[in-house]
């Protein structure tokens, strides 16, 4: 009996064990199924992420790219899918962000390429990193890719890519000027407090601080701001641009080199220039820089890039009303001139009388005149006598730099051949001669032009180009380029003469149509007035 009871007990225990095992097996199968389903779900999500991240050029071009997101000292690339949740990795002042450029127009080549590399760190998830790259032809969005890796793997890939591109691939690294502030167009400027400035002065500030205007003007002369946004091209890179132009100028003027060899040299140097200073020429081949006019054009571009670097540095970090802040950073007193004043009358007459006959495609209308007093300029002024009120025109892009830091002379790295009478500050007594340097157009007809008190002292005279004119003759403080057309009358106004007479033919033999005045020391100049002009372009008769 006891034996039967033990047997039943064992059977019951065995049944319970089998039942528990079956239940465990069922639970394990259920868990495995859930794991498999979750794994498949994650695999599909990962596949979708890879598809999104490895978009090609066409898919990138379909969507309008958002404004760059700046967190830290540099922006996450526009094409990175999760840019809102990531920032560029930085440690010990090392920023893992590089922009490389390679242009090669020599021997029939038509290469004009960029390469971007970044290590991106998640804002929210610790230890989550991507190695991001984008590449393509300058002016295009290009292709891009992103790989999620460990931090060390990201660093290894980043360093290897930069090495491969710069050593084996002949790419140039473009040094950046790092800006944290988001630079809005003037139309989007925020007003935190009521400004104490006059409406006309606020409108003037909107005009010269407008980043969209700067971008448009630089695009018109070939600079590709999509690859290196305005103000972010570092000073060292701009200096390299000047140095290359100097080498190009030397090669152009070299007479002891064979024509074919010179052509190859100029193509190689031009390729270097375009590599450091990105140009968008679509799929067309960039031009070899092989003339003095090419040099002059690119010198003007570099000068504008320097001025824009100043402007964008002043735009960031402001408190209170934005216009008051921008005004303060110009380091100058700016006053609107009354239209009934003697100053206004004489300047308006100066505009009317000195418009050159060869500049007949537009008329000039005075919109506003501002009196400018730059801090410290009067104290540094070198008065050699023979002071004249003369015109100086420039692009709108340059005026924040000009007013805040004064007129400047080209740096030592720049070639002399880009300047007709050497490196100096150039002025004219013909309003239209200087107004041409405003580079306006029928679609952008408003320009700014300066009137400066220039201490000329004794001048040396020239009737043709002299690139070494900065080596002044003994006892001379300036150069005067004698033009065929010149004002017939001077009037004394304040401490200087104003040549307001009508332009008349001087009956002289000269390569110059209008007078030019050049000083080689910026302390011989005081900015006195700024004139806002409307260029009224004449319709061409069909």
Automatic annotation (TrEMBL):
Residues 194-316 form the PARP alpha-helical domain. It catalyses: NAD(+) + (ADP-D-ribosyl)n-acceptor = nicotinamide + (ADP-D-ribosyl)n+1-acceptor + H(+). Its main location: nucleus. GO terms for cellular component: nucleolus. The keyword Nucleotidyltransferase applies. One of its GO terms (biological process) is protein poly-ADP-ribosylation. Residues 321-542 form the PARP catalytic domain. Residues 7-16 have a biased composition (Polar residues). GO terms for molecular function: DNA binding; NAD+ poly-ADP-ribosyltransferase activity; NAD+-protein mono-ADP-ribosyltransferase activity; nucleotidyltransferase activity; zinc ion binding. This is Poly [ADP-ribose] polymerase. It comes from Paramecium primaurelia.
